[in-house]
Specification:
Strand content: 15-25%
Low-confidence stretches: none
Strand order of the largest sheet: 1-5-4-2-3-6
CATH architecture of the largest domain: 3-Layer(aba) Sandwich
Structural class: alpha/beta
């Protein structure tokens, strides 16, 4: 059976399969079917989106499919992905849908789906939905005209999430903090600055003028140097950069030094442990996290569980083990006490709370770990043959593994959302990183013809 769902929902080039209005319509119908919708009032769905131009197309098609199956739809407009996960629970909906391609360029789009518990759907349910869509046999003829669902614009949805977010730090005042906030011209462009202003911080906002095309374009969490430049110019205390749907976050300190997901996770884990809130004294990360993070956690007697790449895998492991702090180097930080998915806004609030309570700078707090030199690159590919079948790459990988031993590592994997192969090289010595990055890149290009 052809796959629709990837590692983070359905994603691709907008208006090309599978990100088409036809698939979105069928997805709406399939969701209505698996939810057991029987007519107006029987099921509710929340739909949010980021600021991509194609969001209008997909929102309309999804709504039509759901309504045709008797599902009532609550449209909340541009909202961060974690806000949709929260609102799904808060508004007692049966499903939450976020139209976004997260950090991808504007001409991509995607659909993330949350169950009534605010967590992403299981693999089994995604497979069931895919089967219904691809069968072409879904019908809404059993829904009489008087049982069709209704679609509502929900004007107070922002307010609901704003108050929830503020409550996660018990409305702790942030007066005296000067913040530069880069919203990536994405879903958080309106709501994020407002939350921090209401808590008393001085917010210098940037990239908050979405036009449908400029999401993630040279800004946000993928390009934190833009934020860092403004922080230095404005002499701000801290910089905060979200990605297009605000489920990931990157900081910079007052000097413009970038603070990525590993350091954020280290700060959160150490703070939670110090206050007796770190469940099982454990932290969940992925294979992409720096070895320096693991060393720092070992010194603090915090167990580190490592999963494969993907915030969904991190969350699954957290749910199985009862952990409440986990995430990825890329800036997905999951604080399970507050959110069921990565939430950039809540993560930022927690870090700012730490700064205020400890009367410390981000530079001081982020110095809790020492990073190994590391290089991460992405190379475009036309196809994704099994990595173990690539002869030149296999040979160079064996050589690199032998050379680095216990003091470094190499990870090669295909992206789950883009036609790219990703290479991570990490070692105690920067020259080793440079050497093996160059050698492995050449091997990849030889095997894959790039």
């Amino acid at each position: 059976m052809e796959r629709l769902f990837g590692t983070d929902g359905i994603r691709g080039r907008a208006n090309c399969w599978p990100i088409t209005p036809e698939i979105a319509l069928q997805l709406g119908k399939a969701l209505g079917h698996v939810l057991g919708a029987s007519g107006h009032g029987s099921c509710k769905a929340v739909i949010g989106k980021d600021t991509r131009l194609s969001g209008y197309m997909l929102e309309t098609a999804l709504t039509s499919g759901l309504v045709s199956m008797g599902v009532d739809v609550m449209l909340v407009g541009p909202m961060p992905t974690p806000a949709i996960a929260h609102l799904t629970r808060s508004m007692d909906a049966h499903v939450g849908i976020m139209i976004t391609a997260s950090h991808n360029p504007f001409d991509d789009n995607g659909i993330k789906i949350f169950g009534s518990d605010g967590f992403k759907l299981s693999d089994e349910l995604e497979t069931d939905i895919t089967r219904h869509i691809l069968s072409g046999e879904l019908s809404s003829a059993h829904i009489r005209s008087d049982l069709l669902g209704k679609a509502y614009r929900i004007d107070d949805a922002r307010g609901r999430y704003i108050e929830f977010a503020k409550s996660t730090i018990k409305n702790h005042p942030l007066e005296g903090l000067k913040i530069v906030m880069d919203c990536a011209n994405g879903a958080a462009y309106f709501i994020a600055p407002l939350i921090f202003k209401e808590l008393g911080a001085k917010v210098i906002k940037t990239h908050v003028e979405p036009d449908g095309y400029n999401i993630n374009n040279g800004c946000g969490a993928l390009h934190p140097e833009a934020m860092a430049k403004i922080v230095r110019k404005e002499k701000a205390d801290i910089g905060i950069a979200f990605d297009g749907d605000a489920d990931r976050i990157i900081f910079c300190d007052s000097h413009g030094a970038i603070v990525d997901g590993d350091r954020i996770l280290a700060m959160c884990a150490l703070d939670f442990k110090a206050t007796g809130r770190l469940a099982n004294d454990s932290l969940v990360v992925t294979t992409m996290s720096n070895l320096g993070l693991i060393e720092a956690m070992n010194r603090a007697l915090i167990r580190v569980d490592v999963t494969d790449v993907g915030d969904r895998l991190v969350i699954d492991h957290m749910r199985k083990t009862g952990a409440n702090v986990g995430g990825e180097k890329s800036g997905h930080v999951i604080l399970m006490d507050y959110a069921t998915t990565g939430d950039g806004i809540i993560t930022a609030l927690q870090i700012l709370r730490m700064l205020k309570q400890r009367q410390a700078s981000l530079t001081e707090l982020a110095g809790c770990m020492k990073e190994y030199p590391q290089k991460l690159i992405s190379l475009p590919v036309k196809a994704k043959p099994p990595i173990e079948s690539l002869p030149t790459l296999g040979r160079v990988l064996r050589e690199a593994t032998t050379d680095l031993g216990d003091h470094g590592r190499v990870i090669v994997r295909y992206s789950g959302t883009e036609n790219k192969i990703r290479l991570l090289v990490e070692a105690r010595q920067a020259r080793s990183v440079a050497h093996w990055t160059r050698s492995l890149t050449l091997a990849i290009r030889k095997d894959l013809g790039r």
